[in-house]
Fold this protein.
Amino acid sequence: MSRVPPPLSLYVHMPWCVRKCPYCDFNSHGVRGTPDYAAYVDALLADLDADLRDFGAAVHGRAIHSVFFGGGTPSLFSPELVHRFLDGARARLPFDAGAEVTLETNPGTVEHGRFDGYLAAGVNRISFGVQSFDNDKLHRLGRIHSSQEASDAVRQAQDAGIDNINIDLMYALPEQTLDGALDDVRRAVALAPTHLSHYQLTLEPNTAFAANPPPLPDDDAAWAIQDACQAYLADAGYGQYEVSAYALDDRRCRHNLNYWRFGDYLGIGAGAHGKVSDANGVRRRWKTRLPAAFLATAGEPARIGGDSVIDADDLPFEYMLNALRLVDGVPLDDFSQRTGLPLDAIAAPLAVCIRKGWLHDDPACLHTTALGQRFLNDVIEAFMA
């Protein structure tokens, strides 16, 4: 089978935030003084230039399918700087017509009237890190915004003309009840976003919460919350298409879908990760994490934190780690297209998962059953080398 290159996306990491949240294990750094945001945009473009040289034919001529500004808090960067980066990226790479361009933001960091500037810069999707509409829960999560500020920010973005909006919500929060979690979902739906991310709070290593764990609902309570909120979202017209993602018709996140379908993406910025398919296989690259180090090595080889080709024995696990998160599954033939491996490479674990009732016995599609979705980690681990 001849391999067709997968879609190519662009991830741009903006590492600063106003304050580090106690649950966060992302590469984010609380602002001290005033970072040189303009110099960082210059470093991003230098990083992109260097990656394009390094990857050469593997990315040459391929159009950008989506862009995602993640962080940190990208909305600390002015619309003018976001515009400057997008203009520079378009000068270096073709963009698909209607490419999805997402900017993450926290409601407490956006000034009134800035959303029209982001829209003019080329941003057509906003993702709000709301997490909860309960002020007590927001305080315990270390968030800097209030429930009212979150609602106001979403409405301001809509009034500015941005019609594709995601709201991030967390559940199983400290001492959260089922009614409290459902109230968060109800209040989010009342704002009429096009997309909701609803994910469980987990204690990640090397975070303040891991060092001093708050009282969280137990596994049974967390499952009851997920089940009830999922049903409410379905009734409200938000179809679940991934473990933690819900969307109105035709509003699924194109950028994240490309991750889950094992597409390619360039990772630009401090700590950013990328994945590119080339003649040697599937290659991962990540950048040095600290903003100061990234700025000091802009466009130079030292900006690279690591670079490796995924071992063929590990590719089935890497592929399933992403693809099996999708509720509707993926075409079985995509496995070979994305990994370059024959289907024989997964025949044995596939048979085991079908026999255990974790995957549907479908010759055309990799598709978890309801049982498989509940025990997804076990399903994915079946494909480990």
The CA atoms of residues 284 and 308 lie 6 Å apart. The chain has a mean pLDDT of 95.
